[in-house]
Amino acid sequence: xxxxxxxxxxxxxxxxxxxxxxxxxxxxxxxxxxxxxxxxxxxxxxxxxxxxxxxxxxxxxxxxxxxxxxxxxxxxxxxxxxxxxxxxxxxxxxxxxxxxxxxxxxxxxxx
Amino acid sequence: xxxxxxxxxxxxxxxxxxxxxxxxxxxxxxxxxxxxxxxxxxxxxxxxxxxxxxxxxxxxxxxxxxxxxxxxxxxxxxxxxxxxxxxxxxxxxxxxxxxxxxxxxxxxxxxxxxxx
Lengths: 111, 116
What we know:
The complex is a heterodimer. Chain A is mainly beta. Chain A has strands at residues 4-7, 10-14, 19-25, 32-38, 44-51, 56-59, 62-67, 72-77, 86-93, 99-101, 105-110.
């Protein structure tokens, strides 16, 4: 059974710091991995999608990596800003239709 | 371009009642999925529909049902509501179903259901 874990559960950093969020999964048989952002009480915003054959994807200040063999993904945020404060969720697609999510990392960036 | 739209945004129901939640996917997207998110947890998969057929079902009781219409919009129905059904219900759409970028999921803002 696929399980997704995100560490840490919460993170507080000063503005301008570079940071890394971690996601691990137990079964390497995935189609792809997607990182999302969720603001309190809101829906999910897609940040990056990494196909199972890819190693990394970049969008602006965000860089996500994927190591299928070790069951790990990281989301790197450069030069963090207060507007980056949100919960970050990773999800793996284990069948054509189903995403399995981690519990999320709640990020707070202090001015 | 409109994103995924869900209605209503908030809903309060009494135990035992029935509820219908609605979702309109991004124009051109043919796949719709439903997820339940309880406070403090990640979303849990409920259903996926593609081309109006059910393609996946999560570990939810038969009180939960869904369907997809010819215009690719979707409804999630929950019967005999329990207090534990209180959650944020999220709808996601994607272009396709089979592989690659076609499966990137885009989520709506969700429907907050409170059962009292």
